[in-house]
Amino acid sequence: xxxxxxxxxxxxxxxxxxxxxxxxxxxxxxxxxxxxxxxxxxxxxxxxxxxxxxxxxxxxxxxxxxxxxxxxxxxxxxxxxxxxxxxxxxxxxxxxxxxxxxxxxxxxxxxxxxxxxxxxxxxxxxxxxxxxxxxxxxxxxxxx
Length: 144
Description:
Helix content is 41%, strand content 18%. The chain is an alpha/beta fold. It has a 5-stranded mixed sheet with strand order 2-1-3-4-5, sandwiched between helices.
């Protein structure tokens, strides 16, 4: 836990020039342990001031008309993975934004290991296609 708090403090210092990164968490898990881990990671990251979180308990089906999110994190009901969706390939992101997403991903890896593995569009096709669907529905940057 101490390592996690140090990571959150370093994140806050390194991201002062960025605005808040908007994150949608789709938490379909039914496990109390996973819900508590999610609560801990969100509280720690929210305290840095670099992230704005919004959570829902089921996967969105309707188009989103408000400001899009930078990242959508999908925690399915079961399975070994958490899906980390982003509308852009990491290679084209500006350095500070890439660093922020890396820290966000690292925080979820620390919070959920060994229960689940975090997979993004670069590691698996499912989050890639999920990201494309979320962009087309307006949930992530890029709009409909």
